[in-house]
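Sequence in, structure out. First:
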Amino acid sequence: MISRGTLKPAQKAFNHLRNDHEIMLDSTSTVQPCFEDDKSIPQQQFHFRPISDIEGMENNSVVDVIGVVSSISPSSSIMRKNGTETQKRTLQLKDMSGRSVELTLWGNFCNAEGQTLQNMCDSGIFPVLAVKSGRVNDFNGKSVGTISTSQLFIEPDFPEAQKLKTWFENDGKSTPAISISRETSMVRTDVRKTISQIKDEKLGTSEKPDWITVSATLTFVKVDNFCYTACPIMIGDRQCNKKVTNNGDGKWRCDRCDQSVDECDYRYILQMQIQDHTGLTWVTAFQESGEDIMGISAKDLYYLKYEEQDDEKFAELVRSILFTKFLFKLKVKEETFSDEQRVKSTVVKAEKVNLQTETRYLLDLIAKFKEEDSGVLPPKIENIISTSGLSTGGFGTGSRESVPPAMNYSGTSSNVTRDSGVPASQTNSYSNQYGGSRFPSAGSSGMYMSCSSCGGTGHNSANCPSLMNGPGQSYGGGFGNKAIPGSGVGGASGECFKCHQSGHWARDCPGTSNVPPAYGSSNVTPGRYGMTPKQHVGGF
């Protein structure tokens, strides 16, 4: 309940509300809390404007805006013109107008709502954010910043928020947005890099720092000077944190504040070495990130080492974090040390690797690589005959270039098949055991044998159509050729040894069928010694 106020026309230059009047309070005015809920008082009202409309607004205009947080940067400290330090955090808002804008959070908004938004974005959630009374800035395009009267609502239960969320899940996530903040100072730390890429890609050497995420193992920590003495004096809403020196009288002096205090604070300045599969590098972790890594405040660790002098417990605590895998969010920037340019990596945030999240990331990465490789066709291979399962002088599977068939007259392994007509499955034990034929034996599962005479398939040289009834070629010969290659039993020429004509065997030679029996043969038709006529041995 407000009473004894003065009602006057609103000064629009200083009042961004839509009301035509304002109430001025003086020393006689009273303000009394009302604990009973009066439903006649309207709830918070919003006048949301599309992000595309902000582009045409004047500088310092106050606006209500709602959008999806598509990206967010870590909180950072900046120095004001009056010498005070404050926190700053930037994020990107996009909406259905096809535009995006940079929103800057100042002061306590960074560590309260800002940290909540950071955690949600790191978890893969893109929250809806409603901003009440943000101020438009026209520096570097148009951007929106918080002021003391601003209010932030994360995932509000508004009709506008539900509509925006549905749009983002269906189309907005993949729809590109044009930023109205021309040269945004937005930084991203979700770009995954390896340690070797810091040097190979010359990160940090441009005007602005590079913000990256590295999955690495902590391998070394410098335990000397792991913290510094800091000023505890509050300047505005922030602690000074500048280094203080001991006066020698038990008090600590801050040159920046020009004051002395009875007790100082302790803040981390950890020098560490991290390593991944590509290399290693030095990084520096300050207060918040140092606590994330060590799991204990710098002040408690200092007292453990120097006041309690419990070296064993101190060493055990340090050993417990070594060889632990973290996701380090790094700020990489080239700085000057003693007139020498060096690239410095500062840990903005460190969190232990979540195996479930990391596995999902790696699976998505593998799927992405498969998509990129799916369009690549294997090289075209011509005139290749697979020799899987065949023994051709090597081990395992392989392939060879096909060669034109050649006639082998030397009685080597090729002739075992050509001359004896043994099926390919039975010649395997001989084909590579003798001679130097260029044709591997067949007979393994799923393989075919090409004819060494004509190069065709579906038959071997024993029943090759091009050799059937051809002069000078064998027809399948004597039994010796089937048992032992090159045994010499049975003809290899295919000619009758009596008349030297082809087309018949010697026993059927027409030139000897009417010859009278030899002396002492007992009327036995000439043939093998001691054998009766027409008695065939070994296929004769």
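Second:
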Amino acid sequence: MFPNTNPQTTTKVVDVLSKGSTGIIVLPQNPTVDAIAAATSLYLGLIKAGKTVNLVCSSPIQNDLLASDKIKSNLSVGGDNLVVSFPYADGSIDKIDYNIQGQFFNLTISPRPGFPKLNPNQVTYSYTGGTFDFIVTVDVPNLNSIGSLYLENQTMFQSKNIVNIDRHLTNGFFGTVNFVNKTSSSTSELILKTLQSMQIELDKDIATNLYAGIASATNNFTAYSVNAETFETVALLLKNGAIKKTYKPAGGAFQNTFQQSHVNPTKSFNPAPSVQPAFEQRTGGTIDVVEKGSAAQTKEGSPAPQDWLKPKIFKGGGLV
């Protein structure tokens, strides 16, 4: 289905993802709908395969795609260390103590005099110390495009297997395995190929997300990059329960393919001026007025015949 995809590459992708049990799927900062759809679909597929994976992005994400609410802003994959977090102002804590009462461990945090006490509603809990086996970058042309998640954790990226899945012409092939197809009309199509290679069954949620990614990347299937393989992929997704929607392209609101001209109803319409007749139109009057006017004109010129006001009758032979 992907003519520029080396089968050995997909085999390597499957090998890395199958051997690892935990991983992180990384998006670029300010990702497109196609990127989010591809990453969330891979996330859902790996979860179905029994993997422990996190989905991360340096930018905040607001999207209604399934599993987009799972996108985090840190590289943590859990662990055994409980972290208690709360807002802190410099010098606001006087001391931290603990005691054990029966089967309970009590942590005591005392504020410094003059500072407000800790608000329990602002306390959060998380786990750290966990490790992961692989990193999958989705729609990432180079590591710097990831943003702060990469810039602040470069050592972590250097020590892990990276599966680079992308279609950008400018991709730097930075991964341990590079699944890059620069002729693909969407990254979502590459994710579908990955899931198929891993023999992960498509469901309605995955199919719907992948359909959304392809529709957005191709401006609802009107892009020049769309080909027969694209429609074969879409047909497969629909057969697996994908819900069709109209998605906005990356540039903004959906634009109609055909330009339509219309009259703005708020503007006045000025029709072309009508052609005036060459002769002067006169208002009608009574017969006696016309006769008097005509008589006045005949006085100034040559005398008119006496019967000129009488109706004339024409026949084939001439005037009667």
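Remark: Residues 250-269, 274-287 have pLDDT under 50 and may be disordered.
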